[in-house]
Amino acid sequence: MSDPGRPLRRAAGRLLFYLLVGTILVYTLFPFYWAAVSSLESGSALFEADFLPSDPSLENYIAVFRDQPFARTIANSLLVATLATGASLALALAAAFSLSRFAFRGRAAVLLIILSVSMFPQIAVLSGMFELVGWLGLYNSLAGLVLSYLILTLPFATWVLTAFMRELPRELEESAIVDGAGPWRRLSGIFLPLMAPALAATGLLSFILAWNEFLFALTFTLSPEQRTVPVAIALISGASAYELPWGRVMAASVIVTLPLIVLVLLLQRRIVAGLTSGAIKG
User: Fold this and answer.
1) Which of 88, 225, 274, 280 could anchor a disulfide with 157, C-beta 3.0 to 4.6 Å?
2) Residue 163: exposed, middle, or buried by beta-carbon count in 10 A (0-12, 13-18, 19+)?
3) d(C-alpha 250, C-alpha 229), whole Å
4) 229 backbone dihedrals φ, ψ, rounded to 5°
5) Are 137 and 147 in contact (CB under 8 A)?
6) Can you give the three-state secondary structure of the chain, one letter per residue?
């Protein structure tokens, strides 16, 4: 016997689901939309609650590049984030292969140490990293930022890739061992192609972490030529010490967000596959 109230409950559940999705989208996208609208306004219009700019202008975008070497800071952030992400993925891939496919004494302790490094707040390791960067002669250089960013991206990448590699079938590795493949051959020829989705997802999240990093970039750089975009945005100033040009800040924020949006759109399929691959059992 059919339940007459079942279609009504199903429609109500679907409506609640769509309302929840809509609320999440508004909550996540509205700040970026408001920044884009504010970046096209100036003067007193910035303080009016207009959902569309009354007199749109690109003056804020022009001023961002005119008043400071903003293009140079974007290039610095792109270079530092790319190098830090690439180094993290390379080191984390080798570490994940060792930690997930080889049984040795102290393996659990190594994983806990890696996790404990990522648990410390940046301010707790700032003085130690400052001494290390200074001792290596990397202060006020992009190389110093790449080195310091590894303490943020490498533990995260190692944990994610280790968890993913543990779920890969051991039969693939065993057959390669029978054929005489060494560890490097097994890693590059078997595991690396299978881990492309996980590498894409981990690489993107690591890139975002390095791209948005502020404390190390502020502490380890001094000259405008070595700054990254978070520091450059924070140092945007107005005509006086008490005036902050919100329009320029919003324009700079929109500019530095666009590369991340492009990366997500280009890698969205691999990102989704990497984030859902943990459910695959070997």
Assistant:
1) 88
2) middle
3) 13
4) -65, -40
5) no
6) CCCCCHHHHHHHHHHHHHHHHHHHHHHHHHHHHHHHHHHCCCHHHHHCCCCCCCCCCCHHHHHHHHHCCHHHHHHHHHHHHHHHHHHHHHHHHHHHHHHHHCCCCCHHHHHHHHHHHHHCCHHHHHHHHHHHHHHCCCCCCHHHHHHHHHHHHHHHHHHHHHHHHHCCCHHHHHHHHHCCCCHHHHHHHHHHHHCHHHHHHHHHHHHHHHHCCCHHHHHHCCCHHHCCHHHHHHCCCCCCCCCCCHHHHHHHHHHHHHHHHHHHHHHHHHHHHHHHHHHCCC
CB 12 within 8 A of CB 6: no
Angle between helices 70-101 and 246-276 (to 10 degrees): 20
The predicted pLDDT at position 273 comes to 61
What's the average model confidence in pLDDT over 88-97?
A: 89
- Closest Cα to residue 127, out of 212, 209, 216? 216
Which pTM value belongs to this model? 0.81
Count of CB atoms situated within 10 Å of the CB of 168: 19
Q: Which of 252, 275, 250, 280 is nearest to 41 (CA)?
A: 250
Of 195, 211, 213, 222, the C-alpha closest to 259 is 211
pLDDT of 49-65, one tens digit each?
Answer: 667 777 778 888 888 88
- The answer to whether residues 202 and 274 touch, using CB atoms and an 8 Å cutoff, is yes
CB 84 within 8 A of CB 206: yes
The first and second tokens of residue 103, run together, are 């049984």
Give 204's contacts (C-beta < 8 A, 6+ positions apart): 263, 264, 267, 271
Whether 161 and 93 have beta carbons less than 8 Å apart is answered as yes
Joined together, the tokens standing for residue 207 give: 């890139």
